[in-house]
Write a structure and sequence with these properties.
- This protein has helices at about 50-60, 105-115, 130-145, 150-155, 185-200, 225-230, 250-255, 260-280, 300-305, 325-340, 375-380; strands spanning about 5, 15, 25, 65-70, 90-95, 100, 120-125, 165-170, 205-210, 240-245, 285-295, 310-315, 345-350, 360, 365-370, 385-390, 390-395, 395-400, 405, 410-415, 420-425, 430-435, 445-450, 470-475, 480, 485-490, 490-500.
- The protein is α/β, with parallel strands linked by helices.
- It has an eight-stranded parallel beta barrel, surrounded by six helices.
- Bound molecules: alpha-L-arabinofuranose (AHR).
- Alpha-L-arabinofuranose binds near residues 27, 70, 292, 350 and 351.
- It is an enzyme of class 3 (hydrolase).
- It comes from Microbacterium nanhaiense.
- Its EC number is 3.2.1.55.
Amino acid sequence: MTTAQITVRRDAVVAPLNRRIFGSFVEHLGRCVYNGIYEPEHPTANEDGFRLDVVELVRELGSTTIRYPGGNFVSGFRWEDSVGPREKRPVRRDLAWHSLETNQVGVDEFARWLKLTGSELMMAVNLGTRGIEAALDLLEYCNHPSGTALSDQRIANGTPEPHDIRMWCLGNEMDGPWQTGYMTADDYGKLAARTAQAMKAADRGLELVVCGSSGSSMPTFGDWERTVLEHAYEHVDFISCHAYYQERRGDLDSYLASSLDMQYFIETVVSTADHVGNKLRSSKKIKLSFDEWNIWYLDEHRESDEVNDEWRYAPRQLEDVYSVADAVVLGNLLITLLANHDRVASASLAQLVNVIAPIMTEPGGDAWRQTTFFPFSVTSRLASGDVLRPRIDVPSYDTAAHGAAPLVDAIVTADDERSAVFLVNRSRTESITVTVDVSELAASRITEAVTLWDDDVYAKNTLEDQERVGLKTLEGASLDEGTLTVVLPPVSWSAVALAS
Ligand code: AHR
């Protein structure tokens, strides 16, 4: 029987918890916006056309900062089309996803939707087909209080208060040949630096995210970050990371250890950014915005006919249905983001509704939780105070893709009154008994112990069976004189909350 010992020291602080780590992403793609968050004919729709049943699930998910409006979409986005009287807004072709954009949801409506969900807006500017001037105009429209052409236009459009958006992305995945207006690192680095300099001339307090690589398998990975930062280092605050994972060729062992790739990705970007910073003798440290991460069965979409020659409104695109194994991997990726929270200061689960999403909807019908909803919502709800790096003593197993992978991974959060332990068991076959030394934490009782696992690791929630998979009580969790003992089922994600 495999066992694991975890030791938690109160002073092993990675970083104080910044709730931006629980961000998400809404792109004008498929049915994320149209027939997702927005469906004016739906019985729960409000006066803006937003579904309130979806709003309720978003609140339960506990996502914080929401990136908008793309993604690849942003590289063709004309923000001016998306404001003002709805009946006058033009219908455009979205080249990124080959669909029709009606602009019925735009900057002002989305900002109102965020208020309903209690989230912060993280806006992306178009550096694909547009540039500095359009970015500055959008910034003025959104953030300037009043008395200028564009701020007065916003007020005339019905939004008297500025949106006061703090985080801005300087384009999206500009290294990707699929991106409208993609560039070399040198060209993008120069444009990003100039755009950032101009935006900060308007507001020194903005937090700007420069595009890093679209994935660690990009041929330019590493060099891209170095070149871009050599141009933009002093003007920006974050560099972005994007990573999607999927089970390939039935290799569940490797898939369950996907977070090792995320760890490699983070370490490479941190060391590259620090190399540039040191070379420039800068006192500043660049933070990472992991603003696209998730499970995405991309190989299947590439082979499908979802993106075809028709120009359709709200087509069903990227509607992955997630399994228990997918949820365990997602929970583990979130553990890895927290374990690197000293540098990964912001992250966005991509995406939020219908498109590779934790929440699914049917037009005129229900909204429901995918399996991946659960580890995200529980972590967001229970995490508080400081993120603590535990010491984990556990055997490893072999994987074809990542080499040796520890069978158990975990992260801990704690404040003065409560703490939480989040754990995964990557073993396909064995339950693992884990003892956790929590004697240095405010932990005299267990307030909650839940797990996500199933006899069928490929079980899913679907339209027909929306509650097939859910959280279960983690049976047998016990606390005795500062030692928490749990038995983690095979292929499971679990959370235990403790209080003083
Ligand atoms: O999240 C889906 C897409 O993935 C985004 O539009 C793009 O940025 C990435 O390639």
